[in-house]
Design goal:
The structure is a homodimer of 408-residue chains.
Chain A (H helix, E strand, L loop, with lengths): L1 H26 L4 H12 L12 H24 L3 H6 L1 H25 L4 H10 L5 H10 L6 H29 L4 H35 L5 H19 L4 H19 L1 H4 L1 H17 L9 H25 L5 H10 L5 H12 L5 H27 L6 H12 L5
Helix pairs in contact in A: 1-2, 1-13, 2-13, 3-7, 3-11, 3-13, 5-6, 5-8, 5-14, 6-8, 6-16, 8-9, 8-15, 9-10, 9-11, 10-11, 14-15, 14-17, 16-17
């Protein structure tokens, strides 16, 4: 009983802190998601010490809840975007993803090399700069109701490609770290990941139209919800098995089901699951922030420079990639791709585990991840409130006006 | 990644198996909940071996999900029942609870004594016979849409009292097992548990009317849901800390919030959380069923007899307690109180841990728990389909007819 009581109390504290901080941040006109991450930092080991990642068995439970939370977040995001809509911005998304991987990689690589580190270290830091953590941006866009904008589609499409590219970079870099690149492995990863995505894009829609009639055929209560959960968990598991992020699978699942979203009120059916689980993702993220990094004054300088490069890399790279959207929307795409999140940390910790990067460099990466994650939402919210992002309706009206014959 | 993938696959299997088996059971006109438990048994170590309780770290995660599931189940049940409604059947509920504790206890006690076991063993088996696991019955009633019937109120009220009584019995019995009963501890348990319940009954409603305006005052999206979650987790944690079942706290939280259920559409807001989490409770319950008990033929006789006593104890005890509802509704109350569930197992395992009961007796208790849990839902469903339970509207109409002046 003691153990159950402890877990329930922890869940209560995390949920309460998330909601209170979220409410405060909304009142000062800042994104609630930043409040939720700060709630986690406050509860974590360096401030109040109420939730401790070092209590591994219990904390593991919260990590799984958080993982399900971010899966539901990306699934719900996908529900708002149809496959064709992503494909219609496919070229822009690809440009954003590719340039947004190349620039940060080279910035990280060059920064590390010039500060007297080895080539392997430089490669690892470059790799840690690559992967965008799209959860933050998706959440901000959802909260501000612009998930159906062109910018959102470009970013989400780019995030999927970005994840595949990140995977390849990681495979190459760890190969170099071990002293031998396995070209077979890299080919296999490429094949699996792109195969998965293309299979869903091509077959997904047909599959869904076949599935749709069964929704009404089942006797179980809330059957469309249950089928959607199965589809979401299924694709997340597959993505995870082929080493893609589980959230890429969840997003693809949502996107394929977007065809049926209106008919079966899927978004609405997932609302309470979203509101219950998503906060755990951001709070748990917050509890894992190692604040001691900020107190190592000898590192602060280097950490700030790397963070600046991390921001500039995505801002310039992704901004250039989305240049055809105009400078306003292009810069929102650039900012939206800035947050790094857990993938950067994972890459750095692999390097640390292999003994090829120093703990100092590891700490600098953590700093960069935390800073990019916390800085992005306020800027995004500001740009959106200034009207940088055109809503879908506005854009369509303008498009129609432009398309009118000139001699009207 | 491998680890995340494994967990996602497990969750997928559990959810899919629950839904498939639930669907099959609904089609053969049986309660879906039995299908869900059988899904767990199928996935468990004795049939397909896909989910194994012995993989403690991973399984622990599923247990927590299951625990949150049953908390949401009892909270949602509570949302349909106002405090006054439970109080209006308070006397009947108390009789049901008291007689439903005394009879099974003595049946278990006498059965064990007469089969050449010690007094301490007999006391433990008696204690394991006591506690009703109300989740099963609540689920069947919810599925059949009769949560607002008088029978449901009597059973749920009785389950709360039953839990307190079970706690006291356990305290006495473990005291005897250790060789010293702590009267102070027993007094403290009584005080805490009854204090908690009475505090909520008396203060709860006022508290809620004070809270209600804040529901609209908050900026956060879906604020009523968030506040309800906090209230539910909070009371579950408190109940758990004072050694009551967490679900008693969750049920009380739901009941107190029932005042606001209609105004803020709380039941509806919890629907998808319910549909996602509740199946995990029953599937995880299924995976923990030790099927080897059924193969020990030397025990089967004794196990069947104890099961018969377990059923008769509640049927007669609770049936008598609810005699004033008439024999039809009284017998539904009797059947509804039959399932034992996890509490019986916990009592038996405490006895096993203290070395005061034999593994044979432990296995017999497990058999009894599984049998009472699986047998109850079909009987309940049958009785309800035969019209044993009057719906609330019917009862009110009849009441009004009875109340009319005779010389109309």
């Amino acid at each position: 009983m003691e153990h159950t009581a402890r877990i329930l109390l922890d869940l209560l504290m995390m949920f309460a802190a998330a909601k209170i901080m979220g409410e405060i941040f909304e009142r000062i006109k800042q994104p609630a998601v930043v409040g939720e991450i700060l709630a986690g930092i406050l509860l974590g080991p360096y401030i109040f010490g109420l939730i401790s990642p070092s209590q591994t068995e219990t904390f593991h439970v919260y990590q799984v809840l958080a993982e399900i939370g971010v899966i539901i977040l990306l699934f719900s995001t996908g529900l708002h975007i149809r496959v064709e809509e992503i494909l219609s911005v496919g070229r822009t998304s690809s440009m954003v993803a590719v340039l947004g991987v190349i620039l940060p990689f080279f910035f990280g690589y060059l920064f590390t090399l010039t500060s007297e580190h080895s080539t392997v270290e430089a490669l690892f830091i470059g790799a840690a700069m690559v992967a965008t953590s799209v959860g933050i941006t998706a959440r901000v866009f959802a909260d501000l109701g612009i998930l159906d904008s062109r910018v959102a589609k470009v970013i989400l499409g780019a995030a999927v490609i970005d994840d595949i590219l990140g995977l390849l970079v990681l495979a190459v870099v760890t190969g170099v770290g071990k002293g031998a690149i396995s070209y077979l492995k890299i080919a296999l990863i490429t094949l699996e990941a792109t195969g998965f995505i293309f299979f869903l894009i091509i077959i997904g829609k047909k599959l869904i139209y076949r599935m749709a009639p069964t929704f009404g055929f089942l006797k179980s209560r809330n059957a469309p919800f249950a089928l959607a959960v199965l589809f979401c968990l299924g694709l997340s598991a597959v993505a995870s098995y082929i080493d893609l992020a589980a959230i890429v699978g969840a997003f693809m699942a949502g996107m394929v089901l977007a065809e049926l979203n209106v008919e079966f009120k899927l978004s609405m059916r997932f609302e309470s699951l979203y509101d219950f689980l998503v906060p755990f993702f951001f709070v748990v993220m917050g509890t894992q922030v190692d604040l001691t990094v900020f107190t190592r004054f000898n590192l602060i300088g280097a950490a700030l420079i790397l963070t600046a490069f991390a921001i500039l890399g995505k801002l310039i790279g992704c901004g250039l990639g989305a240049f055809n959207l105009g400078w306003k929307e292009g810069s929102v795409v650039g900012v939206g791709m800035v947050p790094r999140g857990e993938v950067g940390m994972i890459v750095a910790s692999i390097g640390l585990g292999m003994g090829v990067i120093s703990t100092d460099l590891y700490s600098i990466v953590i700093f960069m991840v935390v800073a990019t994650t916390l800085l992005t939402p306020p800027f995004l919210a500001k740009m959106i409130s200034k009207g940088f992002v055109k809503k879908e309706e506005e854009r369509k009206v303008e498009q129609r006006v432009e398309d009118l014959p000139v001699d009207l």
